[in-house]
Amino acid sequence: MLSMTGFGREEFRNEHLEISAEIKAVNHRYLDITFHMPHFLLPIEDQLKKIIQNKMKRGKINVSIHISGTYTHRKQLKTDWDLVDQYVDHVKQLQTKYQLAGEISVEMISQFPDIFHIEEKEEINSDTETHVKKTLETAVTKVNQMRTTEGAELRKDLLMRTENILHNIKQLGERRKIVIIEYQERILERINSYLEDTPVSEDSRLYQEVALLAEKGDISEELTRIKSHIKQFQQIMEETDPIGRKLDFIVQELNRELNTIGSKSNDVWISEQIVYLKGEAEKMKEQIQNVE
């Protein structure tokens, strides 16, 4: 079982390059990956995304990649041709105005200020790409280590709550038969009080109707289904695939059965137990929101 919450950071350094990859993961219904990185890494964004998709199946993943160094910059010499044209044009105007002799040479033009400038262009080469991917892979591994640790704690908590529910369900089952008998006796007492000196006999039609009425409050089917849900829940927790949605569905069904028992209950003790069990189910639901 994996949690969807985690953090991982990895750095790479050599004499030419510095890379840092940071990943923050929180719970989300689907896998949602957002990158914050230099624009020159955009050509390999899909490849970086696949590295994460191979290891993480659900969650909102924020990835920050920072990179600097000489490997990320390429220097280019640029000529301002518009400025050269202006220099040449003005030199020619001087020659004409003052009747000056001589040719405009390359040596002369090269001395004009500001016609050459150096631009640094950010780009990614194969070595840098390899280092970025490896750094990200390690960061993902660190995130999953944290997610595994937290997932183990979630599993322990959920398993404890399922055992608590099974224990209480067993007690409810033991109490069930007593409640039916007590409910039947209360109905008969009321009927007998109205009939005064003509008590209801066990072989009468009215007695049979009372027994059927008492049976309508029976919760044995709901208890059986709850046991089945809990067993299935515990089995799913052992699976290696993402299980969060499956567990969430089972807890919804568990709540449905508990609500049915609560509506049927005419016993104070059972009603109190249902309140407790619904509280346990709600805590399970909250925990499951963080399970991948």
Automatic annotation (TrEMBL):
Endoribonuclease YicC-like N-terminal domain segment(s): 1-155
Single GO MF descriptor: hydrolase activity
PANTHER family: UPF0701 PROTEIN YICC
Organism: Gracilibacillus thailandensis
Pfam family, one: YicC-like_N
Protein name, as recorded: YicC family protein
Cofactor or coenzyme needed: a divalent metal cation
Keyword Transmembrane: no
Family label: Belongs to the YicC/YloC family.
Keywords of the record: Endonuclease, Hydrolase, Nuclease
Superkingdom classification of source: Bacteria
InterPro entries given in the database record: YicC-like_C, YicC-like_N, YicC/YloC-like
Domain Endoribonuclease YicC-like C-terminal as annotated: residue spans: 176-292
